[in-house]
Amino acid sequence: MDMRVVFLPALAILTLAACQTGTQSAVNQKSAAPASPSERLIKLADDIAKRGDSDTAIALYQKAAALPDARPSAYVKTGDAYMRAGEPDQAAKAYQAALAKAPNNGEAMLGLGSAMMDAGDYNAGMRALAQAAPLVNTSSSYNRLGVAQTLSGHTQEAQVTFGQALKMAPGDLDIETNMALAAGLEGNAGVALPLAQKLVSASNAQLHHKRDAVIVYGLLGQGDQLRAAPPVGLPTQEINKLLSQAQSIRAKGSTQARAQALGSVLG
After folding, report:
1. Tell me, what's the pLDDT at 6?
2. Integer Cα distance of 81 and 183 in angstroms
3. Rg of the chain over CA atoms, in angstroms?
4. Looking at beta carbons, which pairs linking 92-100 to residues 24 or more positions away fall under 8 Å?
5. Do 159 and 259 fall into the same domain?
6. Tens digits of per-residue pLDDT, 199-235?
7. Which of 118, 187, 106 is nearest to 142 (CA)?
8. pTM for this entry
9. Is 229 buried (19+), middle (13-18) or exposed (0-12) by CB count in 10 A?
10. CATH no. for residue 208?
């Protein structure tokens, strides 16, 4: 699914920023302290994962998580590795193991919701992400929740969620794209059309933003307006195909049905 979450693959693993506190001497002292066996294995697995050997990295993450000194983050690392390898079912098991040790671990819950989304269980993913988003409290966590709400047919709630994400990351084109799609599904031209117009003309918009903007125009029945000023970089044939797909989605009888059809198109 490519809802970036645009509607990378939509639920690709996102790196969450962490704050550094304390004096430089404290940092140096911490870094000089001997790592636990689990932490040493995780560091080795991280290095191997960067080289692209996902099978070996997963095996090392699993070994690290099985050690007595392992923290819940070891299971989260295992789940993240499985997600990168395209195995959401195995990832979900790892995240659930982390949550068994730390029920309020936001990153584990965020990963579980993402894994459920990738597996196609949008409603379960939405519930998990609704719990995770305020715990993690980042624009990406709210963006993931908004995608889940959109694909579950809860487009009004999704627009509120995307609005929260945009407060944290104003002008983020991925989030604005997702909000435009959510609004377009329910025919909310007042929100969707200005965002789609921005995406078509923005100098920093990538082709995937423009493709999704074309779909928004189609969902709103504004294909002729788009053809009069088509986005740069997209061939006419592709624009016509996207508009045709959007027209088919628009013809569905309910927002829920349109959301399911959109998920199939963006998948």
Report:
1. 53
2. 33
3. 21
4. 92/116, 92/119, 94/65, 97/65, 98/72, 98/73, 98/74, 99/72
5. yes
6. 999 999 999 999 999 999 999 999 999 999 999 999 9
7. 106
8. 0.82
9. exposed
10. 1.25.40
In terms of residues, how long is the chain?
267
Do the beta carbons of residue 146 and residue 182 sit within 8 Å?
Answer: yes
| Both tokens assigned to 179 | 């909000």
- In the numeric block, which tokens belong to residue 221? 């029945």
Whether 14 is in a domain gets the answer no
